[in-house]
Amino acid sequence: MLNDKTKVRTMKARVLFAGLFNFVIHRLPVLYAIGWLNRHFNFLSTVFVMYPASEEYAKAYVCPTQMERMRWSPWIVGLYYQNGKFGLSAVISSTERDFLNQDNVVNMKHMYEKAHEISKLVGATQVNFAGILPGVLNKQGISKGSIEAQVTVETVIKAEESLRITLNLKEDTPIILFGSAGFIGRRVAHRLSHRKLFLVDKADPKTLENTSWYKSLRGMPAILLNLASQDALTQNLPHLWREVVVLNEVYPEPEAETVSALGALGCSAYHIIGLRAFTLPSFPKAYKGGIPCCAGRLSDGMQALVRKLN
């Protein structure tokens, strides 16, 4: 009960801070002033636009009465510091269902333009979008290229290597890659092509019937890298065995029931929080202590954060 009360207080404090931060910062004179200073001292590099994966995530940043106002208009709700540069966190209240709705293409273009307006005002060098937004924006022809993909792929590669070393797994430990045909998955697959790799993706006919991974690897150490969805992990629980180490990158983190089921099988489960950074306020739930991969900027000293789930 005490823990629940603490969580509620923390959530209310974050919402209050986010509202006040937006009220103070999101004004033309303030943004112009930040931009003038940034062009002289080069301290801010990124504007990061995120969205809620669930109502719980939405409530971590905004009161329900304000959600409609910020559906397609990013609110500046915080800042973070990663490897020598600041970033501004902005949030919209739209969800993945909204992004996948063809009727909202004009709204997404409006949101994209608003984010870049903020970036131009403060002198940021990049605008990053969370989750599936980079892929959707590319597919709709609203944007070209994706810095988010580059940073996320690099973080995943670093996280896999770090975990493998921590667990004393051999360098040639096989990798089962869920979501191998996705926006991030195909890039990760390319980077890991020198490893023994089993590609699994329901969207790819070539891998749809790929059952060789659990037939040929059973009983052997393997890393299951989940870039697909929570459902992909849950649906494949019957195929897993004790020696499998699950490394999840999917947002949000696996449900407690899935984590418990993995534990019952004897599987170790880990979640990629993102990148090490100072944040104000802290990102909610699984991202506490860092920033999502897609919020980061490429730099030599970037550090992947991995948390044990069970």
Description:
There is one protein chain. Helix 2 packs across helix 5 (105-122). Strands 5, 6, 7, 8, 9, 11 and 12 form a 7-stranded mixed β-sheet that branches. This protein has helices spanning 2-25, 28-41, 55-59, 96-99, 105-122, 133-139, 147-166, 185-191, 205-208, 212-216, 230-235, 256-265; strands at residues 44-50, 75-82, 85-91, 126-129, 175-178, 197-200, 222-226, 244-248, 268-276, 278-280, 290-291, 304-308. Strand 5 (175-178), helix 8 (185-191) and strand 6 (197-200) form a beta-alpha-beta unit. The protein is globular and about 60 Å long. It is of the alpha/beta class and 310 residues long. The protein has 12 helices and 12 strands. The protein is 40% helix and 20% strand. The protein folds into 2 domains: 2-145, no CATH class; 150-274 and 302-308, NAD(P)-binding Rossmann-like Domain (Rossmann fold), CATH 3.40.50.720.
Q: How many H/I helices? A: 12
Estimate nothing, just give the exact number of structural domains: 2
Spatial gap, N to C terminus:
22 Å
Strand percentage lies at 15-25%
Major sheet? 7 strands, mixed
The count of β-strands is 12
Classify the helix fraction into a percent range. Answer: 40-55%
- Radius of gyration, in Å, reads 20 Å
Shape: globular
Q: Please state the average pLDDT score.
A: 89
Structural class: alpha/beta
Order of helices and strands: HHEHEEHHEHHEHEHHEHEHEEEE
Stretches where pLDDT is under 50 for at least 5 consecutive residues are: none
